Amino acid sequence: MKPKMTLSLLLCCLLFNLSHAQGKLNRAKEDLSGNSNSSSSSSARWSNDDDFGNDSVGFFDSVFIEIAYHATIGILFGNMETRYFYDYPYADGSHGEYAFGDENVPLKRSQLTISNTFFTSGNEFYGNDIQLNFRFVPLVGVEVNHLHFFEETPKNDLGATSFMLNYYRVREKYVTAFWGIGATHVGSGVDETGFAYQIGVEVFLKKPYSVSALWKQTLINDSSIDEFKLQARYHLKRFAIHGGFNHYQLGSVTINALGFGVDYRF
């Protein structure tokens, strides 16, 4: 009896060590590649939902979709009043990024910002997020960023590069808010590209402070990469120092981290 119990305990320990040695990033890669069991079950569920949806769409569904579409356009785009950029937040008093045309101070029609954030989750994960944001007009901009995760035990990494087109829905003196759509390519052995969307807001409180929040999701196969950031900024003319909480969901893997970094506006 004792030898059997000992053998069972050894097998349990071996299985635990093997699963632990696989690492969370390996599990995330499997999820994003569509190789996990959860992906197949999710695919079957979506397939059933699609069949049901095709059977149920009728006249009233079409009317509802049409009404919702026209009602939403105003929320998504709003009124496109003329705006300009200050040289940088708090350059000429208490204000954020956007200025009205009648301001008697130096104004810009475009803005380029480079940002880099380092984040860490204890001794288990760390990573870096570098971002280039170019608003060629105050209303619309493009954003390119590379997000990279590193795992200590076992040694592993996962990188994702995104290209987003952002529409700046709120361009007020103390508030900037936007939404964007685009695509993300996940490398590091996954080699998949998926649709991405995001929504963000920054509130300029009092010189030299501001706070911001961002939600971003990329749909990869039957899984996703979810990102939520809550940051505070201290503005120093064209430079800003930021820090805060970063939450990532890579398939079934959750990473909570603290991040800090710098921004520079040209």
How does the SSE layout of this entry go?
Layout (H helix, E strand, L loop, with lengths): L1 H21 L1 H10 L3 H20 L2 H19 L6 E3 L11 E2 L7 E2 L2 E11 L3 E11 L4 E12 L4 E16 L3 E12 L5 E15 L2 E12 L2 E14 L2 E12 L2 E13 L1
Antiparallel strand pairs: 1-2, 1-3, 4-5, 4-13, 5-6, 6-7, 7-8, 8-9, 9-10, 10-11, 11-12, 12-13
Top keywords for this entry?
alpha+beta, three-stranded antiparallel sheet, OMP/PagP_B-barrel, Porin, signal, 26% helix, 266 residues, Outer membrane protein with beta-barrel domain, ten-stranded antiparallel beta barrel
Describe this structure as you would to a colleague.
The N and C termini lie far apart (74 Å). Helices cover 26% and strands 51% of the residues. A hairpin with a 4-residue loop joins strand 5 (125-135) and strand 6. It is built from four helices and 13 strands. The protein has a domain at 110-265: Beta Barrel (Porin), CATH 2.40.160.40. Strands 4-5-6-7-8-9-10-11-12-13 form a ten-stranded antiparallel barrel. Strands 2-1-3 form a three-stranded antiparallel sheet, with no helix packed on it. It has helices at 2-22, 24-33, 37-56, 59-77, and strands spanning 84-86, 98-99, 107-108, 111-121, 125-135, 140-151, 156-171, 175-186, 192-206, 209-220, 223-236, 239-250, 253-265. Residues 1-21 form the signal peptide. This is Outer membrane protein with beta-barrel domain.
